[in-house]
Specification:
The chain has one domain. The chain is an alpha+beta fold. Strand 5 and strand 6 form a beta hairpin. The chain has 16 helices and eight strands. The chain has a four-stranded antiparallel β-sheet, with helices on both faces. Helices cover 39% and strands 9% of the residues.
């Protein structure tokens, strides 16, 4: 808290202090906005009405708390929005996608989980704000962990604009960043949003999408999105999307990789976001060979842990089915078949069928029938 001899800063002075503190905490950008999200709430409701959220029922819960921050945290007047870059240097994303034997994982998931790291720093920022005010302030940090409309808030706070791929885009940073929010009872001066979206006539993200998941600009049908299918979806991967998945086994970055604004993105300097266990350059068969104990050990503190071992194996089996023919891959699939759960078994059988179709001969050299019966 302030000492009695230290004058309380004006809100304008406090805002400038917060900007400096955010830099000290290694956030790459910060912005301030108020809580009116009525238009975003209307768009969300229309999206839900079209069932574009698939099985993510949590998006339809909590009533209007998503677009009324003051109902989620009573007393909220302003929202402080921050961004933190996460793209590792030398990601070799396109090369990995083109190598059918490699596993592609969304680049946000290669390092440690961002939730705790960012939330801890936002909590530190909140402590600095309260100390400067010299009195209790209603505050709460959020990092993709509550009914918070982070992209509309960040857009209003001037951090960028929501692009045709539905991601927040920034002229200097593209879209390779995480977002976080600090709800506060302070009436901080607002930043101005960009006067208009900067996508122009570009539709590169729509054209590159492997599963045609964008029914129109600025709208995503999650049910067709590979990120949803490999992470949120708890059941089988629909057969119609398995070939299109290619070697993408955890998320998908295609609409980011192709985006022209990402030419300006900078590599992260955050050590926790650097790739662990060579997940940026691992063979599908290597990851498929992990035991459940290895999976739990290697994904400790990672966003990947949340899908569990069964869905991890499910996704990798699809990747192996799409990989170039290899007797090693076939043996790896067959080895896991007998002990697999029904969910994994379905995808292993599909993968073996795909490998059989690509075999150099057609004399039934891959005998899957004995495993299927």
């Amino acid at each position: 808290m302030n000492s009695s001899n230290t004058p309380k800063p004006t809100l304008t002075q406090l805002t400038e202090n917060i900007r400096q503190w955010s830099q000290d905490l290694e956030f790459q950008q910060i912005g301030f906005t108020r809580t009116d999200l009525s238009q975003a709430g209307e768009r969300l409701q229309g999206w839900l009405d079209n069932d574009y959220h698939g099985s993510m029922q949590w998006l339809a819960e909590h009533g209007d708390k998503r677009w009324h921050p003051e109902k989620l945290l009573p007393g909220t007047v302003s929202v402080i929005c921050v961004r933190m870059d996460y793209l590792p240097a030398d990601s070799n994303m396109v090369a990995c996608l083109k190598d059918g034997e490699k596993a592609y994982l969304s680049r946000y998931a290669l390092g440690r989980d961002y939730h705790k790291l960012m939330r801890k720093r936002l909590a530190t920022l909140a402590s600095k704000i309260e100390a400067a005010c010299g009195e209790a302030v209603i505050q709460r940090p959020f990092v993709d962990s509550a009914p918070v409309m982070e992209k509309p808030l960040a857009e209003q706070a001037g951090l960028g604009w929501i692009g045709k791929n539905t991601l927040l885009l920034n002229r200097q940073a593209g879209s390779w960043f995480f977002l976080g929010e600090l709800y506060t009872s302070l009436a901080l001066p607002e930043d101005k949003p960009m006067p208009e979206k900067q996508c122009g006539q570009c539709r590169a993200c729509h054209k590159v999408c492997p599963t045609d998941a964008f029914p129109e600009p600025y709208v995503l049908d999650a049910r067709r999105c590979i990120s949803y299918l490999t992470i949120e979806n708890k059941g089988p991967i629909p057969v119609e999307f398995r070939k299109a998945m290619g070697n993408r086994v955890f998320g998908c970055d295609d609409c980011q990789i192709i985006c022209p604004w990402n030419r300006f993105a900078s590599a992260t300097t955050e050590q926790d976001f650097q790739p662990r266990h060579k997940l940026d350059n691992s063979a599908l068969v290597t990851l498929f060979g992990w035991s459940e104990e290895q999976f739990l050990s290697n994904t400790a503190g990672s966003p990947i842990r949340r899908i569990g071992y069964e869905r991890w194996q499910r996704n990798l089996a699809v990747g192996l089915g799409n990989a170039p023919y290899s007797t090693q891959l076939v043996r790896a699939l067959q080895t896991k078949l007998d002990s697999a759960s029904e969910l994994i078994k379905e995808h292993i059988i599909w993968a073996l069928e795909q490998q059989s179709k690509n075999a150099p001969d057609s004399d039934g050299s891959i005998d899957i029938n004995s495993h299927v019966l």
